[in-house]
Design brief:
With 382 residues, this protein is of the alpha/beta class. The chain has two domains: 14-182 and 290-381, 3-Layer(aba) Sandwich (Rossmann fold); 187-286, Rna Polymerase Sigma Factor, Chain: A (Orthogonal Bundle). The chain is built from eleven helices and 15 strands.
């Protein structure tokens, strides 16, 4: 097992392949399945210090450190490493690209062994539960029986919730950040606009665009719509206001305002690293996720022995704090030890990637209490 150096530095993505078919929640079977993953730190002698970090919609396995030849670090770089919240002197950190992704794990862009062509829309419908089932196989492959913690923000938080539901005996604690037990109609609606933008691009070709021109315009628009929901009105006002571009063209419906240019830049950057079909499949998995399955949420949590840290952000209107409070309330009713922390940030949903100092403080102390066998279920505002 390859390890990052003491200061993280250069890290390598690794790959685990399961040859037997994975039975999905839809009843279909998928295999072989490959998961791309990265690890940081050292697994201790009794294999009890493993922490699984789950990524959000557009994330990947590269949570920290640097890839050779690249200057951009992992997406949560400042939280993972020696002396950081996820201290690699104490914990063995694992992060894998989700099933259905496009960053090394099996997804719609992978080769279908039955046809020797990319799956495209022949790729089966996947769920958050299927993603977690694949992660469980990876944890088993690494020889780990129980996780010290499973952690995630946004869709990553959904995966952490699914771990609690389907494998609670293998999880000592969970950290849920800016997430929900199920999507609201508004959250589904935003995802559907993004999907329709992709499918309206004539280069999409019913998902059969591999080896040809990709639906870049549609995927860029989907990302633009999504990115609006990741910010808050205050953060957009502070960052852009109504400032107009100095180099704007004569009026031809081009990017006259700074905010327009910013969104176009985000969209154009996103299409260089993401697959349109993966976007369709993953957002659909998020929309179908429903931890309650038409039961009271407290019944889902009843009997769970794991300790929870739940973090919300006041300016997050994509995953508003009432959805986090709903989870904590259900935990309290079910007798689960849950600590709720609310951060006063202006960054909106993106705060879970930006408010590093506040998150680090909360995570460090929570994991310390978990390791010492004690946590107190409280409510904090910072």
């Amino acid at each position: 097992m390859k390890q990052a150096n003491a200061a993280l530095g250069i890290v390598e993505t690794q790959y685990a392949t399961v040859t037997e078919k994975l039975e999905l929640e839809s009843g279909e079977k998928l295999g072989p399945v490959t998961l791309a993953y990265e690890t940081y730190g050292t697994l201790n002698h009794d294999r009890s210090n493993a922490v699984l970090i789950c990524h959000a919609l557009s994330g990947d396995a590269h949570v920290a450190g640097y890839h050779a030849g690249e200057h951009k670090p992992g997406w949560w770089h400042d939280l993972v490493g020696p002396g950081r919240a996820f201290d690699t002197h104490k914990y063995f950190i694992i992060c894998s690209n989700v099933l259905g992704g496009c960053r090394g794990s099996t997804g719609p862009g992978s080769i279908n062994p039955a046809t020797s062509e990319p799956y495209g829309l022949r790729f089966p419908l996947i769920t958050i539960g299927d993603m977690v089932k694949a992660q469980q196989l990876l944890i088993q492959y690494l020889g780990i029986g129980r996780l010290r913690a499973v952690v995630g923000g946004s869709m990553g938080g959904m995966q952490a919730l699914q771990w609690l539901h389907s494998a609670s005996g293998r999880v000592e604690s969970a950290i849920l950040i800016a997430t929900a037990a199920k999507h609201s109609p508004q959250q589904i609606a935003f995802n559907e606009v993004g999907r329709q933008a992709i499918m309206a691009d004539h280069h999409w070709q019913d998902g059969n665009y591999y080896g040809e021109r990709r639906p870049l315009k549609g995927l860029a628009v989907a990302r633009m719509v999504g990115h609006i929901t990741y910010m808050s009105e205050v953060s957009m006002l502070e960052k852009f206001g109504r400032q107009q571009k100095d180099d704007k063209d004569p009026f031809k419906f081009r990017a006259d305002f700074e905010v327009e240019g910013y969104l176009q830049h985000r969209g154009d950057s996103f299409v260089k690293r993401f697959d349109a079909n993966s976007y369709l499949y993953i957002t659909k998995a998020m929309d179908f996720f429903d931890l309650t399955a038409e039961r009271p949420l407290q019944e889902v949590f009843r009997g769970i022995g794991a300790k929870l840290l739940v973090i919300g952000f006041r300016s997050d209107w994509l995953y508003p704090i009432w959805q986090l409070q709903e989870i904590v309330r259900a935990c309290k009713i079910a007798g689960v030890n849950a600590t709720y922390c609310e951060i006063d940030s202006t960054y909106g949903h993106d705060a879970f990637l930006v408010e590093i100092e506040q998150e680090a403080h909360l995570i460090t102390h929570f994991l310390k209490r978990v390791s010492s066998g004690y946590t107190a279920g409280d409510v904090y505002e910072i």
